[in-house]
């Protein structure tokens, strides 16, 4: 769940810190109230394509940080594969875009690629705008969302281990067949 969003020097926003309560959060308001700036900022923290045009006039760079809590098991496993430190309590995503267009991405204050930030972000946030749907169209996140809703994380982890063992046995069998064919 998104717990906190910090925005610095994005378009008209010099400094904004938002703390979110549990449950559904919706940005509503009149046209021109700034909803799109908030969503663009969140999307940047999730790994969206950066745009130096979002840097506030007179600022050298923008910064957007998002804190999520707790950390989903799928994200923990993904970060473990990438050797990125992560506890179960909180996950911090940050994006810095300079006025000259250079972009840097961080997960738990460790430098990462924007692609990895986007991959992690896909598990965390669905942004639904007037003309865009993001997460619901990405089939890679469907199973994880359903498994989390059903509290099936331990069963899916056990299934993944069994599948890996099965794949290993298939590879061993193929290697033995290849060796037998050569003999």
The biggest beta sheet, please? 6 strands, antiparallel
Strand content: 15-25%
| Rounded radius of gyration (Å) | 20 Å
Give the structural class: alpha+beta
User: Shape from CA axes?
Assistant: elongated
Q: Kindly report the spatial arrangement of strands forming the biggest sheet.
A: 2-1-3-4-5-6
CATH architect. name: 3-Layer(aba) Sandwich
* CATH level 3 topology: Rossmann fold
CATH superfamily: P-loop containing nucleotide triphosphate hydrolases
Q: What is the chain-wise order of helices and strands?
A: EEHEHEEEHHH
Q: Assembly type of the shown chains?
A: single chain
Mean pLDDT over all positions:
87
Name the features.
183 residues; alpha+beta; Rossmann fold; six-stranded antiparallel β-sheet; 5 helices; 22% strand
Description:
The chain is of the alpha+beta class and 183 residues long. A six-stranded antiparallel β-sheet has the order 2-1-3-4-5-6, covered by helices on one side. It starts with a strand and ends with a helix. The chain contains five helices and six strands, in the order ββαβαβββααα.
Question: Can you describe this structure in just a few lines?
Answer:
This protein is an alpha+beta fold and 183 residues long. The chain has helices at 35-45, 73-81, 114-124, 142-149, 153-182, and strands spanning 2-10, 13-19, 61-68, 91-98, 103-107, 110-112. It has five helices and six strands; from the N terminus they run ββαβαβββααα.
């Amino acid at each position: 769940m998104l717990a906190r969003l910090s925005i610095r020097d994005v378009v008209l926003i010099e400094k904004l810190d938002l703390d979110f309560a549990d449950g559904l959060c919706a940005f509503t308001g009149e046209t021109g109230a700034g909803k799109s700036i908030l969503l663009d900022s969140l999307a940047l923290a999730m790994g969206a394509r950066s745009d130096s045009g979002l840097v506030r006039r007179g600022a050298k760079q923008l910064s957007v940080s998002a804190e999520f809590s707790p950390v989903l098991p799928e994200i923990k496993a993904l970060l473990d594969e990438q050797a990125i430190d992560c506890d179960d309590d909180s996950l911090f995503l940050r994006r810095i875009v300079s006025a000259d267009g250079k972009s840097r991405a961080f997960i738990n204050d460790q430098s990462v690629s924007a692609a990895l930030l986007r991959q992690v972000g896909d598990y965390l946030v669905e942004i639904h705008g007037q003309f865009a749907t993001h997460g619901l169209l990405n089939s890679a996140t469907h199973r994880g969302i359903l498994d989390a809703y059903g509290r099936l994380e331990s069963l899916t982890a056990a299934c993944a281990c069994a599948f890996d063992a099965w794949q290993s046995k298939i590879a061993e069998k193929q290697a033995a067949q290849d060796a037998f064919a050569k003999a």
